[in-house]
Amino acid sequence: MSLLARTVRRPPADIPPAVVAVVVGAVLMCTYSVGQWVSMQVPSWDLAIFSELAKAYAHLEAPIVPIKGEGYNLLGDHFHPILVLLGPVWALWPSPLALLIVQDLLLAVSAWPITRLAARTTSPWAGGALGIFYVLAWGMQGAVAAQFHEIAFAVPMLAWASVAFVEGRWLASALWLVPLVLVKEDLGLTVLMAGLAIAWRARGEQVQVRGRRISGAGLGLGVALFGLAAFLLTVLVLLPALSPTGTWEYGLGGNAGDGSTAAATPGGLLARLLSPSVKLATLAVLAMTAGLVGLASPWMTLVLPTLAWRFLAGKEAYWQWEHWHYNTVLMPIALGALLDVLVRLKGERTWMQASVPVRWLSVLAVGLPLVLGVVTTPRLALAAMLEEGWGQEPPRAAAAQQVLETVAEGSTVKTDLGLLAYLVPRANVYWVGSASVDTDYVIIDTQSSAWGGNPPVNAAEWATSTSSGAVYELVLDVEGYQVAQRVAR
């Protein structure tokens, strides 16, 4: 054996599968996002909203987002001060695509701790398979397809907090949990549940904190109280103070879709939580993601606040498991709960004489999410990349570019959904459905879904008739895009 061979140490067996999971996740998700951007697929106005926020932070300004309304501070919509980190990103790469890549990388890197723990708990091959499932799971793909949202920052925190919990590193878990309150207001309740889980699991143990020893249960209860206090402070004080309406707009019954609230009786509440059947489907998929055995872990209780606000709301998109980004924060929790139970089973010698051997129970627990991944893959977003022509520029790409070049740098623009995000880097953008100001330009895409199949015939006439005295003239009409420019008041 050469001297080099004797001195170079092999990496731990859990490193290679973690590298594979992170790289596979990053490459596939970034490829999807680039293709989605190039092909001009626009699922909602959210990417444009967060792009305006990033642009404001890049200029060291408050996150005023005209798309939501004149002078609208986005911190009054959802409380996500952690998004100030997007400011430097936008300064270096002023494009909404940058936000998509940031989200993809955040989701991908969260597979690192999960996969390493899975490989140590099972085997490198099984752990690697779980890591691949995790990074490409239904909740992850839903987020990528829905484009950027603030919860992308929560996923790595929850992944590392989950692993620290499983390994009994209570202080590390707590430190990963605390910043969640800066990501979104409801995550304070997730921190509350995590603190209670730590308090239960760490009872009777001591934790070293700044040279002092405190009880593990006390640490957990402290985390729980912090999460609850942060939630109450945010929704009762900060959000109402920053919101244009002076209220927390997403409280119980607020923005629920049908304006209804949960029934007062326990039976009515249970019916509201479990019907219609799409909610049961989401619960079933989540349980399989945790390998069913994960339901026995106290860590699984962290999913309850997220599921509660979603299922009590009247908006159907909140209930689904296939689409949107609402399931993303559940992924590291479910995998963490699965691994928590596997680690504990592995250490329980009495299970070896049980009627169901630990080895076979572990195989079942690991196999369930893997089977789920295989079965659901054709229904999820990344499968679209296999379709012919996916990710290519649409037929109207040249026309869209002509529209963008018509708009002067630094001007104000009112438009519909199609080019909303694409206009943010060069203009201050308003939404046709909420803007009450007369902008320099009005852009109408006659093929946009925003008009419900009944778009204005002439953008200039529509802009003039809906203005507060401004006059517009049509300066561009190409392949369904119309650009009207303000010429007088």
Rg, nearest Å: 25 Å
Count of β-strands: 7
| Low confidence ranges | 1-7, 253-264, 349-355
Please give the order of strands in the largest beta sheet: 4-3-5-7-6
Classify the beta-strand content into a percent band.
Answer: 5-15%
Structure annotation, total helices: 20
- The pLDDT mean sits at 90
Helical coverage, percent range: 40-55%
Euclidean distance between termini CA atoms: 85 Å
SSE sequence, one letter per element:
HHHHHHHHHHHEEHHHHHHHEHEEHEE
Rough outline = globular
The quaternary organization reads as single chain
Number of domains: 2
Helix-strand category: alpha/beta
Largest sheet: 5 strands, mixed
Question: Can you summarize this structure?
Answer:
This is DUF2079 domain-containing protein. The chain has 489 residues and is α/β, with parallel strands linked by helices. It contains 20 helices and seven strands.
